[in-house]
Amino acid sequence: MMKKMLSLALTLAMVASITACGSKPETTTTAAETTKAGETAKAGDGAAADVQKIIDRGTLKVGCKSDIPKFSLQNTATGEYEGFEDDIAYEIAGKIFGCTADEAKEKKLVAFQGVTAKTRGPLLENGEIDLVIATFTITDERKETYNFSTPYYTDAIGLLVNKDSGITSIEGLDGKIVGIAQSANTKEMTLKYIDEKGLKVKPQFQEFDGYPALAQALATKQIDCFSVDRAILSGYVNDKNQILEDRFAEQDYGVASAKENTGLAALVEEKVTSMISDGSMKKLQDKWELQ
Amino acid sequence: MIKGLFDTKRWNALFQAFPEYYIPGFLMTLKISLVGLALALALGVVFGLLSTAKFKPFRILSRIYVEFIQNTPLALQVVCYYSILPMLFSSSGFRMPKFILGVIGVGIYHGAYISEVIRTGIEAIPKGQSEAASSQGFSYLETMYHIILPQTIKIILPPLANQALGLVKNTSILAMVAGMDLMYFTDSWGSERGYFAQAYFTSAVMYFIICFPLARLARYLEIRSMRLPTAKRLEITADEEVA
Fold first, then answer.
1. How many domains would you assign to chain B?
2. Confidence at residue A17, expressed as pLDDT on a 0 to 100 scale
3. Is A222 in contact with B93 (Cβ distance < 8 A)?
4. pLDDT at residue B121, as a whole number
5. Domain for residue B169, yes or no?
6. For residue A256, is pLDDT > 90?
7. Is A183 part of the contact surface with chain B (CB cutoff 8 Å)?
8. Chain B: residue nearest A145 by CA?
9. pLDDT tens, position by position, B40-98
10. What is the CATH number of the domain that holds B203?
11. Cβ–Cβ gap B194/A142 under 8 Å
12. In chain A, where does the domain assigned CATH 3.40.190.10 lie?
């Protein structure tokens, strides 16, 4: 009796978890949706199925960081996302819905969702968001899991240390603890840079979940150095710490989409390359004062 | 279904990462759990006895410890030991080894709960028994050792096992401060490759490997503690029959 009840309970739990995790069923096209699709047909002509789905839905769901000044910062007063990466999202939305970026912004065709280094991957894979434009570095390993566009920005890793630590360059990091963010490739890159310079420096690495935790650990001296992309680091500089001169591991940020959304990836790729070639990407960078 | 759960490529990646990530993480969690449990039991017994003592300051001391620890979140306590406590002692940044940090974190936290478990266990024994013992000339410690505690153990074993299991699972909070435990390495590998289903499923299995024997052991002790007196009596009768 006990065993039977146990197995029944287990089966129920399994079923529940499967239903909970199951992908959302394909929405059947109702009459209302058909007309909506018809209205936007001028943009959606011959669009791939995955792009058509976004057009039918009416908004492009984009994952952006919410805490990086100039790149993507959520305005606490209005709740709006503002920055270079958010503007790219509007440009892409404009391309999908057949309007300009300004119109896309006005009509709120982009639904932003704040992501972190840790959440952006799973959210993309689950289909919660269509695109990730969140200082997402292109690597070969990640290319196996996601589609990446041509890089839209090149950043480098920086090292933030306490001023009173006496560390002035990467050579001072021997035996010190370097705090890095989870799911960042900072560790490999730092070790590679040390190797290339022929230094005998052996820092220890500790990973933290989120940049505030890292900033706190640095402030309380539990780590000697806080190392992430310079774009992110610039948001955490205060009068007690400084970014070292060392600039290494230039890395490219790309727009990522889920592996199976090839139509969307092709469209994004087209938009990003055209923005780079016609100089509008440069203009956007200048607008946000990025070098 | 969760995407890529049965993807062999992802499982292969996991098996390759296993010795580097999961083994050290598992050992760290196991070590923290065992030593932390010993600390929690020691603290629990001491403060549990103090909270039933006749001397009032002892009871007050025990109350302060229990209430303070019980009514603040473990995450906050761990962050406090991690970053605020060292700042109080020195401004140059004293660093506690992660193992010690873990033992102190879960040890003190669950020590408070175990102390409550033991207090209620002792109070569950009718007061008349202590009075009878003292009328027969038993000292406080003798009363505890011979009369109260043997009965208490039967009552407290199930809630005690709960605490032990909770302690093992709560060691995962260390991941928050780069605690080098199982959860830390799980997060680290999972987020590095993006294979979250594999990462967390494996981690769950490994926590289960620690918790399940502990739960069985507690159950075994519980059953044994109930049967002990009857078993003794049977032995004597058997001897007499042979004689």
1. 1
2. 57
3. yes
4. 92
5. yes
6. yes
7. yes
8. B194
9. 999 999 999 999 888 999 999 999 999 999 999 999 999 899 888 877 776 666 788 88
10. 1.10.3720.10
11. yes
12. 48-152+254-287, 156-250
Which chain B residues touch A213 with a CB distance below 8 Å? 176-177
Domain A48-152+254-287 is classified in which CATH homologous superfamily?
Periplasmic binding protein-like II (3.40.190.10)
Q: Which of A15, A18, A183, A218 to mutate to test the interface with B (most CBs of B within 10 A)?
A: A183
Residue B1 lies in a domain: no
Does some domain include residue B3?
Answer: no
Is pLDDT at A10 greater than 70 in this prediction?
A: no
Predicted local confidence at residue A24, as pLDDT = 42
Average pLDDT over residues B170-197: 87
User: What is the DSSP secondary-structure string of chain A?
Assistant: -HHHHHHHHHHHHHHHHHHHHSPPPPPP--HHHHHHHHHTHHHHTT--HHHHHHHHHS-EEEEE-SEETTTEEE-TTT--EESHHHHHHHHHHHHHHTS-HHHHHHTT-EEEEE--TTTHHHHHHHTS-SEE-SS-B--HHHHHHEEE-S-SEEEEEEEEEEGGG---SGGGGTT-EEEEETT--HHHHHHHHHHHTT-----EEEEESSHHHHHHHHHTTSSSEEEEEHHHHGGG--TTEEE-S--EEEEEE--EEETT-HHHHHHHHHHHHHHHHTTHHHHHHHHTT--
Residue of A23, A183, A221 lying closest to B191 (CB–CB): A183
Q: Where in the sequence is the domain holding B68, given as residue range(s)?
A: 8-242
Q: Report the residue of B7, B188, B200, B219 to disrupt the A interface, i.e. the one with the largest count of A CBs within 10 Å.
A: B188
Q: A156-250 — its CATH code?
A: 3.40.190.10
Residue B7's pLDDT is what?
A: 79
| Separation in Å, CA of A8 to nearest CA in chain B | 20
**Interval A35-75: pLDDT, tens:** 444 444 444 456 788 889 899 998 999 999 988 888 888 88
Q: Is residue B2 part of a domain?
A: no
Give me the pLDDT at residue B27, please: 94
Residue of A nearest to B1 (CA): A22
* Interchain pair B1, A182: CB under 8 A: no
pTM of this structure: 0.70
Structure confidence by residue, pLDDT tens digits, A108-153: 899 999 998 778 888 998 889 999 999 898 988 888 889 999 999 9
